[in-house]
Amino acid sequence: MSVPASDFDSGWKETVEVFLPSLVDLFLPTIAVKIDWNRGFEFLDSELRSLFPRRGTRRRRVDKLVRVFFKDGRSQWIYLHIEIQSQSSKDTAMRMFQYFCRIYDQYGEPILSLAILADPDPHHRPGDLDLRIAGSGCLFQYHTCKLTDFTDEFLQSSPNAVAKVVLAHRIAQRTVNDPSARLQAKVQWFRELIRQGFKRGQIKKLFRALEAMNPLPEELDVEFKERLRQCDPHKTMPIITSLERLARKEALAEGRSEGLSQGLYKGQLLTLRDAIRDLLEERFGHTQPDIGERLEQEMDPVVLKAWLRKTAAIESLEAFRKLLELRA
Prior knowledge:
Layout: H1 8-18, H2 20-27, H3 29-32, E1 41-43, H4 45-51, E2 61-68, E3 78-85, H5 92-107, E4 111-117, E5 129-130, E6 139-140, E7 143-146, H6 152-157, H7 161-174, H8 179-195, H9 200-213, H10 218-231, H11 233-236, H12 241-258, H13 260-284, H14 289-297, H15 301-311, H16 317-327
Parallel strand pairs: 3-4, 4-7
Antiparallel strand pairs: 1-2, 2-3, 5-6
Helix pairs in contact: 1-9, 7-8, 7-9, 8-10, 12-13, 13-15
């Protein structure tokens, strides 16, 4: 049984976009404390694409350009360039220098460059680029962070969300030829997130990275879904992209055999219940098992839509519970 190819690019791209403060805190802790995250930040994807138009074959890296504010009162923007590689490369220093030159030429502002080295070779450590000769030239220096430097123990115990993405990346590298081991590792990864108290919304976002990096053959994906149901149905149903994807496949399959409207109906119920759970957790930090059970029992999408609208303004979980009781 072969293992589908990992998509590291999309997993890391979404991680950078969703968990940027946590990412900088994990990889550049001495810099993270200097950034004023309360003033916001902006991704400059279009600007980066104009400076480095993509040509030819698919690149095995993710490039992001962000502008942030520091806390020391400086009014100018700081440009943070992050490059994530999943394969070792001999031209890392030169490429980072080229990015630095083009970005500085475009904006004329200080640039903080970071190369996150995600390849599995612990000995691959690109250094500075020395372009000095006969008293002329320059020495280009940039930050690097090697994922292999993090121990499993640190990543497993860390409350930092991006540490869990590094673990997902590591699982993919270690199980590239062993789908059964990948299945076991994914279930354990999920159980640890539940045990450490990550919120449901965070787990959903982290799981998108896990799924992109660690796809399973379809028959094992079905088993994965069942194993997660056994962990804690009140916290896992439906919580992650693999469950959502499989549920939609099932709904479509039922739509073909029982009528398309039936498949769409089940998909609608799934989406509405999920939206209510997300909003309750966003507002109150958690839900209760009895509320989750009641949502699963409700089969009328009109009622679920009404509950979803009221969830945005309801004052407490207890008030929401009373709302559910009115329907019982």
